[in-house]
Amino acid sequence: MSKSSFEEQIMQGAYALGRQCDQLASEKRKFARQLRYAQHAARLGSLSKQYDFGMVFFATVGAVSLISFDAKSDPNAWVVTVFGFSMMLLAGGIALQSRKMVSRIRSFNDRFGSWQS
Predict the structure, then answer these.
(1) What is the DSSP string of 13-39?
(2) What end-to-end distance do the CA atoms of the chain give, in Å?
(3) Is the dihedral of CA 59, 61, 64, 69 positive or negative?
(4) Distance separating alpha carbons of residues 55 and 62, to the nearest angstrom
């Protein structure tokens, strides 16, 4: 084997190792991006579930307090009515925030969903 062909083989091996290193770095960045996407999507999903739970909880508390309200039993029972309406208003506010969250999740998936593949 001549010296020049040996040097050529060494150079080809070095180039192949360089390309392989670049490819591995690219795959590492791709997997890191997919991991960040999955973590953020999971965080948004969890937050959306919390909004849904809060909405149902406060609406239920408000409805139960309004149903159990009996004006003839207590002259100060208007407090229960105000409490019930405020809980239902709070549930409505949470529902509006939940709609914003769903819109945010949808736009996030539209923007970054292609990175998942």
Answers:
(1) HHHHHHHHHHHHHHHHHHHHHHHHHHH
(2) 46
(3) negative
(4) 11
Q: Which residues contact 102 (CB under 8 A, 6 or more apart)?
A: 48
pLDDT in tens, 92-105: 888 888 888 888 88
Query: What pLDDT, in 10s, does the model give residues 51-83?
Result: 888 888 888 888 887 777 765 666 777 777 788
Q: pLDDT at position 29, please?
A: 92
Tokens 């190792």 correspond to: 17
Place of tokens 């139960």: 64
Produce one character per residue of 42-66: b if its CB has 16 or more CB atoms within 10 Å, e if not: eebeeebeebeebbeebbebbeebe
